[in-house]
Design goal:
The chain is of the alpha/beta class and 208 residues long. It has a single domain, classed as P-loop containing nucleotide triphosphate hydrolases (Rossmann fold, 3-Layer(aba) Sandwich), CATH 3.40.50. Helix content is 52%, strand content 13%. It has a five-stranded parallel sheet, sandwiched between helices. The termini are close together. The site of the ligand Cc1cn([C@H]2C[C@H](O)[C@@H](COP(=O)(O)O)O2)c(=O)[nH]c1=O has 13 residues, from helix 4. This is Thymidylate kinase. InterPro entries: P-loop_NTPase, Thymidylate_kin-like_dom, Thymidylate_kin_CS, Thymidylate_kinase.
Length: 208
C-alpha cells in the first residue's frame, strides 16, 4: 500500500471516548512525524457547522427521519469538499470524529431508513470517496459516561431512548462485519492509553 496521506474516522455510540481518542491519536501520529488535520461531524466546515446547529437542537420531532438523513448528507458533502479533500491534497492525514458510518448506524439502522438507502444518499453527496480506515469504539458503559459528562442534558439525538442507542450499537457491529477491511471494532474499555494502543495497532498497515 502507498504511503500517501490517509483519511481515518473514529466512530461509535455516545460517550465511548471518540473525542478523547481523536486527540490522543493526533498526538501519537504527530510523534511519528505525520501532520494530521482533525475534524468532526456533523460539522468541520462553515456550512456543515451551521447544519450541526440545526440538526442537533430542538425537539426530536423537529425533523422527519428523511429530512434528518438529508441534513447529515448535505453537511457531509460540504465537509468533504471544503475541508477533507483539500487537507488530503495538501498531504495531510485527516482524522474525523464521526463520518459516514454514523449516518449508516443512526439513520440507516436505528432510525429505520435502511443502511443501503443511506449509502445511496452518501454516494449522491460524496461519490465513491471513503475513509481509508474506520475505527469503531465499542463500550457497554458509553451511555453512563455520556450522562456523567452531559450534566446539562444531551442534544436532540443523544437524548433518544436507550433502545435507540442499543440499535445504533447493533448497526455499527453489522457494518463492521460487512466491511472488515475498512471498518474495525475496537474495545474501548480500560485506560485512554490502552485504547490508543489498540487504535494504533489497527492502523499499523497504513502507517509509513
Ligand atoms: N478510557 C477512558 N476511561 C474513563 N473515562 C474516559 C475514557 N475515555 C473517555 N473518558 C471520559 O468519558 C466521557 C466521554 O468521552 P468522550 O467525550 O471522549 O466520548 P465521545 O465518544 O466523544 O462522546 P460523544 O459521542 O457523546 O460526544 C468523557 O467525560 C471522557 O473524559
Ligand atoms: C455524523 C452523524 C452524527 N449523528 C449524531 C450522533 C450524535 O448523537 C450527534 C453528534 O454528537 P457528538 O457529541 O458530536 O458525537 O449526532 C447522527 O445521528 N448521524 C450522523 O451522520
Amino acid at each position: 500500500m502507498s504511503d500517501g496521506p490517509r483519511f481515518i474516522t473514529l466512530e461509535g455510540g455516545e460517550g465511548v471516548g471518540k473525542s478523547t481518542q481523536l486527540k490522543a491519536l493526533h498526538a501519537a501520529l504527530a510523534e511519528r512525524g505525520l501532520h494530521c488535520a482533525i475534524t468532526r461531524e456533523p460539522g468541520g466546515s462553515e456550512g456543515a457547522e451551521a447544519i450541526r446547529a440545526l440538526v442537533l437542537s430542538g425537539d426530536d420531532s423537529r425533523w422527519s427521519s428523511e429530512a434528518e438523513a438529508l441534513l447529515f448528507a448535505a453537511a457531509r458533502a460540504d465537509h468533504v469538499e471544503k475541508t477533507i479533500r483539500p487537507a488530503l491534497e495538501q498531504g495531510h492525514w485527516v482524522l474525523s470524529d464521526r463520518f459516514l458510518d454514523s449516518s449508516l448506524a443512526y439513520q440507516g439502522g436505528a432510525l429505520g431508513l435502511g443502511v443501503e438507502r443511506v449509502r445511496e444518499l452518501y454516494r449522491f453527496a460524496c461519490g465513491d470517496f471513503l475513509p481509508d480506515r474506520t475505527l469503531v469504539l465499542v463500550l457497554d458503559e458509553g451511555a453512563e459516561r455520556a450522562r456523567a459528562r452531559d450534566t446539562e442534558g444531551s442534544d436532540r439525538i443523544g437524548g433518544r431512548s436507550d433502545a435507540f442507542h442499543r440499535a445504533v450499537d447493533v448497526a455499527f457491529r453489522q457494518i463492521a462485519a460487512q466491511e472488515p477491511d475498512r471498518v474495525r471494532l475496537i474495545d474501548a474499555s480500560g485506560t485512554p492509553q490502552d485504547v490508543t494502543a489498540r487504535l494504533l495497532d489497527n492502523l499499523a498497515d497504513l502507517l509509513p
